[in-house]
Amino acid sequence: MKCLFCQNTNTEVIETRVSDNKTAIRRRRSCSDCKKRFTTYERIEEIPVLVIKRDKRRERFDRKKLLNGIFKAVGKTTVTADQVEEIVSLVEQSVANEGKTEIESTVIGNQVASHLKDIDKVAYIRFSSVFRRFLDVEEFERELKKLS
């Protein structure tokens, strides 16, 4: 590993540990030439997943965007931030397990809706009304009847 300060290629690892969120290995290194220390991180190279939107546009999977959408649906309900994080983690894991580089937004939306349905019916209806684009009261009523 090249030294950050003097560009010398002779450095040694003096400490190694797993990062706090367990997604990387943190290494403290020391340069044998200038004696300065620096930190490097080793992470798994993620394969970018593209989400195919309804209008056929493609955009990178965005965890924050998914979190924000779910948080809007669960506002003023009993659903906790930890539960929302868990839903997003389960969706990410499912997407990764598919091993594909593209996934339709409807697949992601259906997974989120399914998880919310198990946790909180109000959050499920809120999310579904936006995700499935309910146009009138009858669509809400049909979905509510399915929950009864």
Automatic annotation (TrEMBL):
UniProt entry keywords in alphabetical sequence: ATP-binding, DNA-binding, Metal-binding, Nucleotide-binding, Repressor, Transcription, Transcription regulation, Zinc, Zinc-finger
Kindly indicate whether the keyword Repressor belongs to this entry.
yes
Q: Cofactor comment in the record?
A: Binds 1 zinc ion.
Highest taxon in the source lineage: Bacteria
* Cofactor(s) needed by this chain: Zn(2+)
Q: Which residues form the ATP-cone domain?
A: 49-139
What's a single GO BP term from this record? negative regulation of DNA-templated transcription
GO molecular-function annotation terms? ATP binding; DNA binding; zinc ion binding
Under InterPro entries, the record lists: ATP-cone_dom (IPR005144), NrdR-like_N (IPR055173), RNR_NrdR-like (IPR003796)
What's one Pfam family here? ATP-cone
- Signal sequence residues: none
unnamed zinc-finger residues: 3-34
Q: What the protein does?
A: Negatively regulates transcription of bacterial ribonucleotide reductase nrd genes and operons by binding to NrdR-boxes.
What does the sequence similarity comment in the record state about its family? Answer: Belongs to the NrdR family.
Q: What is this protein called?
A: Transcriptional repressor NrdR
Tell me the name of the encoding gene.
nrdR
